[in-house]
Write a structure and sequence with these properties.
alpha/beta, Rossmann fold, Alpha-Beta Plaits, 13 strands, binds magnesium ion
Amino acid sequence: MGDDGVGAREQRARPLWAAAEALRYRVAAAPKLFAFFDYDGTLCDLAASPGRVRTQASARSALRRLIESAGTRVAIVSGRPLVALRRRLPLAGLGYIGLHGLEVHVHGLHQAALIDRPATAARVARLQSLAARFFSHRGLQCIIFENKRLALALHTPSLPAPVLRFVGGTFAELARQHGLEVITGKNVVEARPPGLEGGIAVRRVLAGYRQALPVYVGDDATDEDAFRALGADGITVRVAPAGTATRARYLVHSVADVIRFIHFLADARKERTP
Ligand SMILES: [Mg+2]
């Protein structure tokens, strides 16, 4: 991931619940709040394949509570396409940022990033056809391609580490030759137009809701760039085991923790002094 990953400047993230009292005060005191949640691995447990992931009813009802809180906005940020996110989590008042920031539909801000969509889609299709031939030639038919039109995800479940390194390295090189850059997440490598990470989309969305305290919760390396973009301005939370290197300020360990945190935010917003 190069500079987008976790570098030498990461800090030691604190367990979120150890800081609960101070956070409750900060959330209650903020005139506005904008909470961003990643989807896979954050609001729902990961499954053997992305298609098998299911949104829990408890996540849905917690989000509904937070959306209805005064002075509060909520958006989902994901590598999934925007249409897929809306289908999985169709909640009134919820904002959506799809394809790690390439698609935005949040409270009056409806746009695809400033890219040439047909040209990008054509590059993605060319890369897919070349990479599929290349890997199939080498007996790696188990790799699953997901064409997201503006990005190409390559799902690599259960490949041994040396094969994974070969696949990731080769795919990154092929992507570069097509003017695309690669980001790496859990069991997935994705080629996409350069310079349009999720953190940039989050910053752009926040600009339309001035003085909001940003909250961002995510579980993957692909969320690190949003943690970096928010820095000390926001409450950043990584869902990961203790000791994980991250730019987030706080750590929780499970989807259940995230759902509890959403209720915690909604409770704190109720205590807000108007
Ligand atoms: Mg995730």
